[in-house]
Each structure stands twice: as C-alpha cells, then as structure tokens.
Design brief:
It is built from 9 helices and 2 strands. By secondary structure, the protein is mainly α. The chain has one domain. A two-stranded parallel sheet has the order 1-2.
Length: about 260
Amino acid sequence: MSRYLRAYTRQIGFACLLLLLPFLLPPFGVSSDVGTLVTATSTIFAIVAGFFIADAMSNYLRLQTLIAEENSALISIAGNAKAVDKKNCVAVHQAIDAYMIAQLDLGTLNHFSQTQKQVDQLHVSIHSLKTNSENSLLFDHVLAMEEKVITTRQEMTLAAKKTLTKVHWGTLITLAVLVAITVLAIRNGTWLTNVVAGLMILGTQAVLVILRDVDNNFLLEEKLAYQNPREVFHAVAQPPYYPHFAPVKYRIPDQDGSIRIGKKA
C-alpha cells in the first residue's frame, strides 16, 4: 500500500510542478507566429499517442475478456468435477485454489511462467477423477474446460505483454517535450496564457501516464481489485483470498464473514 502512496505522491508533486512551470519561467519573447508550431507539434503528438493508446487498449480489452473466460472455465471444472467424482474432486478444487492464490500473490497479470506448476497440478488432479459410463459426458466437458484454460493462458501470455518499446517511449517523450517548449514560447506574461500553458503541459503528461498504466496493465489490475477471483473461490468452497499487499478496502469477506489474507514472503 505504501508503495502505491509513494508513487501517487510523486505523480501529484510532478503534476503540480508542471502546472506551475509557466509561472516560474520568464516569457521567452518569441513572436506570436510560433502558434503555428504549437499546432503542428501538438497534432503530431496527438496522432502518435492516439495510435499507441488504441493499440494498448485493444490488448487491455482482450485481456479483460480472457480473464473472464479463464475464471468461468475454472468454475465449470470445479462444478463438473464434483458431479463426476465427489471423493477425488477435492484434489481438483485444491489445485484450482492453489492456482488462483499463486496468481494473486504475484501481484501481476503477467504470471504465466510462474504459475505453470499449479496448472500442471490441476491437470494431474483432473485425470485422477474416476469416471464411468454415466458421467463420461461430464468428464468430457471437464477436459474441454481444461483445454479452454490452457488456450486462454496462451492468448493471455501475448495480451499481457507491453506493446510499447523504449523507442516508442523515446518518440513520445520527445514529442511531449516539443509540445511543452512551443506552448511555453507563446506566453506573453499574462495570467491567462500561463494557466493555459500549464494546463496543456499537464494534459500532455497525463496522456503519457494513462498510456503507461494501460500498457503495463496497471489500470486493469486496479479495476479488477481482487473481485474477479471471488467467484472461483466460492466454486471450490473456499473463503476469498487476498495477498498481504491488497488494500484494506478491497478485503471483503464472504457471506459467512470468512476471509483469507496472505503472509509476507
């Protein structure tokens, strides 16, 4: 929690500095014709940033869908495994529970290489179920859902990766700096032009922050806020689990008041 507070404090402080920058720097005394240059640089920045935001958002939306599909497949496996074999389904439920806990403890949506062990254990537990002619169709559905989990994980591996490289960020930051310089150049020393310039610079910085948070999945992680796995834990008859770094406001117990909190490593 303190990590996020420090990050927000730095961002707020930097934003205030950008907003006050036009008031701290003296006017450059450049001709008003520089307005054409402001239009050019801001337009190019908007086009490039818009392209990258659209690209990052497509991954964002796809990843959101894939997470829902994976969780629904796990819930289906849990229910059908119990119908197939009430005795050995406990091992399946434990494997699903361990997989979800491993995801949450890592604190990232890009967890696939670190959770392969739990997926392998889920596979072993599913194939330990005892089947007969009466429940063979249900077991086939369990196998189909297991395949769905594997397929979804493969797609999520690609969707969870960052799309912007260092070259992309270098281009965006260069354009943002050019926008800031040209905006500062059109000031005439009045309060109004200083406010407008400060807001434009702050807006440019805000676009970069939004793009960063979408690209590294921070917005999606914050949006999910540990709510999505609750239904999976309910399906395996376990209280909801929250890692130790989860904010207190997100730690919501189930209807019985039960809750599990992870320990610091």
